[in-house]
Amino acid sequence: MTDVVRLRGAGKRYETAGPPALQGVNLTVSAGEAVAVMGPSGSGKSTLLNLVAGLDRPTEGDVEVAGTVLNRQSETALAKFRCDHIGIVFQFFHLLDDLTARDNVLLPAQLAGVPRRDALARADDLLATLGLTGRANAYPARLSGGERQRVAVARALINRPPLLLADEPTGAVDAQAGTHIIELLRDLNQRGQTILLVTHDPALARQCATRIVEVRDGRLTEQVTT
Amino acid sequence: MRAVARLAWGAVHRRRLQSLIIGAVVLLSSGTAVLALALLVASTAPFDRAFDRQHGAHATAGFDAAKVSSADLAATAKRPGVTAASGPYETVSAQIRGDRMPLPPGLIVGRETADSGIDQLYLVDGDWLTGPGQIVLSEDILPGREVAPHVGDQVTVDVAGGLRLTVVGIADSITGTGDAWVWPSQVDVLHASGAVPGWQMLYRFASADSDDAVRASLAGATDGLPSDALTGASTYQAVRLRATESLRPMVPFVIAFCVLGLVISVLIVANVVAGAVVAGYKSIGIQKALGFTPAQVAAVFVGQILGVSIPSGLAGVGLGWLAAKPLLLQTASAYNIPGAAAVPGWTLAVVLLGVTVSVGLAALGPAVRAGRLSAVSAITVGRAPRTGRGYRVRRALAGTRLPRAVSFGLGTPFARPARTAVTLVAVLLGATTMVFAVGLATTLFRVVAAFDRTSAVPVMVGYRPPGGPGGSSPGAEPDPVAVRAAIEAQPGTALALGLTEVQANLGGSTEPLTIRAYDRDASQAGYPVLSGRWYAGADEAVGTSRMLRLTGTKVGDTITVGTQLGQRRVRIVGEVFANGSSATIVMSTDSLDGLVRSVTPQWFEVELTAGTDIETYVENATTPLAAVGAVPELTSQAQENQTVSVMLGLIATLTVLLSVVAALGVFNTVVLNTRERVHEIGVLKAIGMTPRQVRLMVVTSMVAVGALGGVLAVPAGWLLHRAVVPVMAGAAGTELPHSVVTVYHPLELLALGLSGVVLAVLSALVPAGWAARTHSAAALRAE
Q1: Which chain B residues touch A97 with a CB distance below 8 Å?
Q2: Which residues of A touch B691 (CB under 8 A)?
Q3: Helix-strand-coil percent breakdown of chain A, rounded to 5?
Q4: B734-739: which pairs have CB atoms within 8 A and are 24 or more residues apart?
Q5: Model confidence over B238-258: pLDDT tens digits?
Q6: What does residue B680 show for φ and ψ, rounded to 5 degrees?
Q7: For chain B, which residues lie within 8 Å of any Cβ of chain A, measuring from their own Cβ?
Q8: Contact status, residue B727 vs residue B442, Cβ threshold 8 Å
Q9: Residue B710: in which H helix or E strand, if any?
Q10: Are B553 and B531 in contact (CB under 8 A)?
Q11: Mind telling me how many Å the CA of B391 is from chain A's nearest CA?
């Protein structure tokens, strides 16, 4: 199986003299895997996710995603790489308030220069799959938490990225919506989507992930196969 | 109160960029305001002070001694409307020759005291006359210090017999009532054989607010005298115009720039404070929760603005004072008034107070709004921008085929309509400044071209000094006939106009008169005719605008022109636009009969045939003309107008300053927008927007504002130009030809319309770069 994510001795230090946020992390995620990164608050989970997403750069080691070593890329190359290869689902959705659900979903495709007709078809298809057809023209403020997160998932998937990153995807929704999100992620993984999930919720990790890794004080301490 | 001050001061430090922007705009606008006010005051105040101090004459009237008696003139002092009068004084026109050089022909007045009721002469050097054999010279006719006669020197008065007199003093007459004064019993001067004697009366009137009022009062005073007894008159308004000519034309456009600058500054301050209120919602909520009253919350915002604007205003006032000082020194030296070079203290105080109050008021609106916010809603809203505005437009833009970064950018202004409106006005005023400045500069260039007549007579031919390099043989004078023949033989010559310039005097006036006399038809020599017609024969002349204003002459009047050889009556048949600081008339050499001994062209103006290359012409003509002791040169290189050069420099400086101020306005808006949208930018970058796309998005957010501002600026600048230029012309004492006022070419206006976009884009580039470098992870954590 091809490795989609490969971290070799990756670390991050925000202040030269301060303690490392992440250090010496070796992690591989193969295509089709769903890996959950767990750990308490402040352990370095989000830093790990940011490194894999190319939103931040490691101060030591290498981060390789889909065969590209991210820490050697320019900001522009990283942005293009994210657009084509990575979809991100955030805990607080990060939808743009001024755009409708459909326009939010369309955004990465438009940035990637996908022809409008194709992008629209794909967006509508995703919205239908996620049960949001009737809410396509609604603005985020009019959507429930669960609907917003499903829009965020649709947005993350519009460019068919090889890797889906999810940062506490159920952290800001109610229990019922959380269940739907879990089912959605599991379904996506079963259909071959590689997922790297960051959470402190063991139930979410158990239900969604094929493998769980734990981060504590910036170090990867344990790998469990579910 | 201490808490309010501490918070305000803390905000000044925390919002360093905004503080810097406010500081810069207040500094620049207050500096411009001081310069404008100082110019306004200095352009007239020193003259008015000197006029009051010397009890100047509202009108100086000259009379023909053969047609009116001393008693008749003395009686005019009691006419209705005359509040005071001096004279009659005997006068004669004559030339005075110093040992080092001759002085221009002038009016010599017989006068016993310097300290008469009107026109109290100010003695610059030496003493007043004590008897015959002495002369006091006017400071106005003296040439440079090196060659001017000094107190104690002897001068020759060029009357029959050539009389030698001793210079006992140098005096200044604020209204230029005489060029020299002699003892009233100096009859060998005042009644010299062959000279034309006259009388002079000095008047002050109850009604003297304008030139027309003075002339009407004078007409009332001389009513009943023989109709041709009055040979001429000058008014203090004309003298005032002449005295203030170097500064007054600058006043209208400097004030226009100043007003534009102040308005832009006020708008920027309002935008900064409104932005600070939006960004500080959470802080406002906390302040109110802690017990701050609405007034105290508002005071924090106003305080932070005043904390920056007062020191910046002080610095700007200082800079404006420094800039105005050289201009004022130039004026002050002309009037011998101690302290006239100082910018009046009240001017500085008014600017400082005005700027402070203006920015304070600009800050007050949004500050009061902040004070009225409820604590809960302020904390709840936090720093997130209010939603619900411009959805339709933004959605429509999203549906277009434009790149997403562009459609995002174009939609941004609709999210904050008030801020966008203020920014639009800042861009509009900045671009208006550019349109106005370009028009003004074009007008001035055309004034210079019209003055120089470069298109009509592009080449001038003068004489080389005998024996000089390439000149005629040592000792030989160049022969004008041979020079003309050489010019006419040159391929490309259409017409060679021989020009003789004569210094003369105008009957009844001390205003020096220059006569330009042409020996061929000069109707095509490039003098724009503003009214009337070109002269058609002997005893007809056209007067320059300046001549008509300085002497109160009107088209159709007949004037008396005199030299030491005689006088001649000349009818003014037209008004022309021409250069020269003195009153000038243009006529045929036929009209010089009796005024000069012989007519010899002093130089030639050359009209070229169509299609002749001017520089090639000059190059080809140099050798053949050198052979006859003449040298050709381009007309444009032969002339220089210092006032226009100073004005062009000032316009360029003020335009740059105002463009910087307007650019700071756009810059501030983009900074506010990007800071408010930092989270959104973080999201966009996280989902794949490249730094270049972010930069494009931010820059295009100002493109529409810039385009609209530029489009509106074209008519605004055009109207401002149309309004200011005639005022400048009036201040300079001239009418303007149509070509000087109508200066904009349609393509030029189109290009100027784009200046708003250029201004907006350039101002947005730096904050766009900052936005492009936004760290996504940090921006997302800002949630």
Answers
A1: 387
A2: 75-76, 79
A3: 40, 25, 35
A4: B734/B544, B734/B545, B734/B546, B734/B549, B734/B577, B735/B530, B735/B531, B735/B545, B735/B575, B735/B577, B736/B443, B736/B447, B736/B530, B736/B577, B737/B450, B737/B528, B737/B530, B737/B577, B739/B446, B739/B450, B739/B528
A5: 777 766 666 667 777 778 877
A6: -60, -40
A7: 387, 390-391, 394-395, 398, 401, 403-405, 411, 415, 679-680, 682-693, 772-773, 775-777, 780, 783
A8: no
A9: helix B691-732
A10: no
A11: 6
Geometric angle at alpha carbon B95, from B94 and B101, rounded to 5° = 170
Q: Which residue of B has its CA nearest to A48?
A: B777
**Which residues of chain A are within 8 Å of residue B780 when distances are taken between CB atoms?**
55, 90, 94
Number of domains composing chain A: 1
Say yes or no: A119 contacts chain B, CB-CB below 8 A: no
Number of Cβ atoms within 10 Å of the Cβ of B136:
26
- CA dihedral of residues B485, B486, B492, B493 (deg, nearest 10): -40
Higher-pLDDT residue of B286 and B33 is B33
For B401, half-sphere exposure in the C-beta direction (CA atoms, 13 angstrom radius) is: 2
The token duo for B69 is 């008696």
Strand duo A211-216 + B180-182: pairing: unpaired
CA distances from B159 to B92, B183, B197 (A): 10, 16, 12
pTM of the model: 0.70
From A88, A110, A141, residue closest to B686, measured CB to CB = A88
Residue A192 confidence class, pLDDT cut points 50, 70, 90 = very high
Q: Which tokens go with B634?
A: 């381009």
CA distance B253 to B239: 23
pLDDT tens string A5-37: 999 999 999 888 888 999 999 999 999 999 999
- In this prediction, residue B385 carries a pLDDT of 45
The answer to whether B754 touches B431, Cβ cutoff 8 Å, is no
Q: Which residue in A92, A94, A98, A117 has the most chain B C-beta atoms within 10 A of its own C-beta, making it the best mutation to test that interface?
A: A98
Q: Give the model's pLDDT for residue B384.
A: 44
Burial class (CB in 10 A: 0-12, 13-18, 19+), B276: buried
Cβ-contact B234, B550 below 8 angstroms: yes
**Does any CB of chain B come closer than 8 Å to the CB of residue A83?**
yes
Residue A179's domain spans which residues? 3-225
Closest approach of chain A CAs to the CA of B372, in angstroms?
26
> Residue B398 and residue A99: Cβ atoms within 8 Å?
yes
Task: Write down the pLDDT at residue B335.
Answer: 53
The answer to whether residue B636 scores a pLDDT higher than 60 is yes
Q: How confident is the model at residue A213 (pLDDT cuts 50, 70, 90)?
A: very high
Contact B543, B585 (CB under 8 A): yes
Report CB contact under 8 Å: B398, A103: yes
Report CB contact under 8 Å: B405, A111.
yes
Distance CA B153, CA B163 (A): 14
Average pLDDT over residues A159-179: 88
CATH of the domain at A220: 3.40.50.300
- B32/B120 Cα distance (integer angstroms): 38
Q: Which of residues 138-157 of A touch B (CB under 8 A)?
A: 139, 141, 155-156
Contact A112 B688 (CB under 8 A): yes
B484 contacts: CB under 8 Å, gap ≥ 6 = B496, B498, B601, B604
The b-or-e profile of B372-407 (16+ CB within 10 A means b, else e) is ebebeebbebeeebeeeebbeebbebbeeeebbbbb
Q: What is the pLDDT of residues B730-741, one digit of tens each?
A: 777 777 788 888
Q: Residue B761 in contact with residue B706, Cβ under 8 Å?
A: yes
Cβ contact, residue pair A111, B693, below 8 Å: yes
Q: Which of B390, B688, B693 sits opposite A82 (nearest CB)?
A: B688
Query: A54 to chain B: nearest residue by CA?
Result: B686
